[in-house]
Write a structure and sequence with these properties.
Length: 482
Amino acid sequence: MEKFFKLKENGTTVSTEIMAGLTTFFAMSYILFVNPSILGAAGMPTQAVFLATIIATVISTLIMGLFANVPYALAPGMGLNAFFTYTVVFGLGFTWQEALAMVFICGLFNIFITVTKVRKSIIKAIPVSLQHAIGGGIGVFVAYLGFKNANIIEFSLSGANIVTINGAAPAAADLSNGVNSIAANGGVVPAISTFTDPAVLLAVIGLLVTAVLVIKNVRGAILIGIIVTTLLGIPMGVVDVAHINFSNNISSAFAELGTTFLAAFDGMRTLFSDSSRLPLVLMTIFAFSLSDTFDTLGTFIGTGRKTGIFSEEDEAALENSSGFSSKMDKALFADAIGTSIGALFGTSNTTTYVESAAGIAEGGRTGLTAVSTAIFFLLSIIFLPVIGVVPAAATAPALIIVGVMMVSSFLDVDWHNFEEALPAFFAAFFMSLAYSISYGIAAAFIFYCLVKVSTGRAKEIHPILWGATALFILNFVILAIL
């Protein structure tokens, strides 16, 4: 194990890696319950999606750990699953089988741009200042995700601010199956919670406990914080251990999996049967791929540079090597094949999770962390009733603390230089406010190009950066058309 994962070389131990893997698992385990809920709204069988989520996560994360030897975990991506259901199925009228077919094609496309080194060339084209901005921006996004998951931040809106219900205008919305989604305009007002909800109070307590443990440099502070908060949730009524059901019928879930397994190929037969839909199909695949690619790049840049997982030597090898000789080469390839694997079993785009930062913060530095995370996800099939008692109020404080740690990347941004500060600002705040790493990167790229053009230094912009910026703008145009 030492020789395979090079633990000493990376300054870590088996126990540290396993603890980091468990921490990453708890930080992202919410996807086990959120993904079936979102994709189930599109008509997919929820138990099948639950298993597909686990299978896609385990396989892709094992590839990341064993092939690339880096501590990143993959799972169906938040935001991408919402795009799958509420835009592609509800908004555009595709069946969920056809949507899976588009996800599968997106995965193949991502593999192609990885093998041909387009993906890593994009990384090398991003200026160092923007890379630091992206790293800090991810910190803001992760912390915001924690506050939101804990409901420490709540939102209010009036009926006049509602734009669509279930993807349609309020007056024309079909409410026969209830309300699945609501889109509102800028009239939504965020505010701090009134702290009357026990779950919110538990999250605040968990945040205080975790913060003290980190300040005291307690080993495994974030993981201990999750466990302690979960235990405190029992007397507070947030965690109900009395309803743990060990007779969970796993066999029925596997029976349902037969419905979604290889359903992407069924969708492929009808996806291209109508030539008039071809432009729409291609634009949708492009939108899937663009978001998936830049979410992954943002996660690697934001966490890898700060922690040294991707060293200067590795970054140099990325630019000069051929094949899969660098960690980044292998990590990008592992991430690329995850989407196609997930689509085959029945889930939306699989991507590298920013919550991997929680395990990295616990000292995870090698693929053993990823392997550990994959094993815990596999075990969650059996122990689902137990895993399910870990509330969002227990994992949210971990995300907030990790976000605090990551925003230190902003120290390397020259905030006194407005030309550098402007793209950095939009990178940070678009990630959180738009709830998308890729949109934060898009805003940073657009304003970076604007700065260079305005100052007569357009030649300093790398051609790939020009191309990526143009694609982002095209994506926004496509979203407006759709």
